[in-house]
Amino acid sequence: MNAVSVIIPAYNEEGAIGSVIERLRRVVPGAEIIVVDDGSADGTAAAAEATGAQVIRRPGNGGYGRSIKDGVNVATNDTIVITDADGTYPVEEIPALLEKKKAGFDMVVGARQGKFYRGSLLKRAARFCLKLIVEFATGRRIPDVNSGLRVFSKAVVSPLFPDICEGFSFSTTITLLHHLTHRSVAYVPVAYERRTGSSKVSHLHDTLRTLQYITECLIHYNPLKLTILLCAVVFLVGAVTSFWFGPYAVLEAFLFTALVFALGCVMEGNRKPRR
User: Fold this and answer.
1) Which end of the chain has fewer beta carbons closer than 10 Å to its terminal beta carbon, N or C?
2) Burial class (CB in 10 A: 0-12, 13-18, 19+), 15
């Protein structure tokens, strides 16, 4: 277990960080534990230091993804585990994820389950739509798109950092990029727990940012698929509006989709390598 680095991004999590680290020490003895304090205004950093964990203090709030990247950059081991500081993830499942990683997977994700994960109807609907978009983009079934409990390789992920979000969408984009670059990902069901303290997520803002990063990833790694989706939407709109504007609406939609598809073909020739 000692060849593992655990990264914990933390922002105003004074109430839970100490117990999370203590639980980690029991289940992954000898692991390097790195807490990245993302400009907290409370005693998060002091509470983490009191446990003997290595603490990186950021002067301001740079975002969830930026914190993980900073932690990965200073980690001394190739096998990286990330988890949250709020106590929601069952860190006792980390050994099972590590065993799965040893089987040869590039990344292993704790797929959340349980009543504390389901949340409100609006939250479930947004999560479902996001899941559909990512599954369309990758052509894979993905049980949990943005889980914050996962194991991956520093050597594999570090070159992808320029395309990975520095905010809340870090977990979504790292999932997307592993699939788009044809790397193997395994999912292990885990019971999501009640969080300590209040959530820092802004659902509308962070959802829109996630959609932005999904679009950017597709432009870089699979632009033709994005183009096909756009063409389908435009042609469907043209077909529907033809009832009001006549057959010329369909013709205009067809010409536009042909132009967009041609542009997609050009972009496909300049996309980033997928491996």
Assistant:
1) C
2) middle
Q: Which residues pair with 92 in a beta bridge?
A: none
The pTM of the full predicted model, rounded to 2 decimals, is: 0.82
Rg (CA), the chain: 21
pLDDT in tens, the chain (275 residues): 569 999 999 999 999 999 999 999 999 999 999 999 999 999 999 999 999 999 999 999 889 999 999 999 999 999 999 999 999 999 999 999 999 999 999 999 999 998 888 766 777 787 788 888 888 888 889 999 889 999 999 999 999 998 888 888 899 999 999 998 889 999 999 999 987 766 666 656 667 777 777 777 777 777 777 777 777 777 777 777 777 777 766 767 777 777 776 766 666 666 666 55
Cβ–Cβ under 8 Å, residues 205 and 172:
no
Identify the CA nearest to 72 among candidates 2, 151, 16. Answer: 151
Locate 181 and state its tokens.
Answer: 């670059």
Of 15, 66, 51, the closest CA to residue 195 belongs to 15
Report the 10 Å Cβ neighbour count for 251: 12
* Contacts for 26 with CB less than 8 Å, ≥ 6 apart: none
Six-digit token string for 47: 């509470």
The token pair at 96 is 């099972």
Q: Which two tokens stand for residue 24?
A: 């980690």
β-strand pairing of 79-82 with 54-58: unpaired
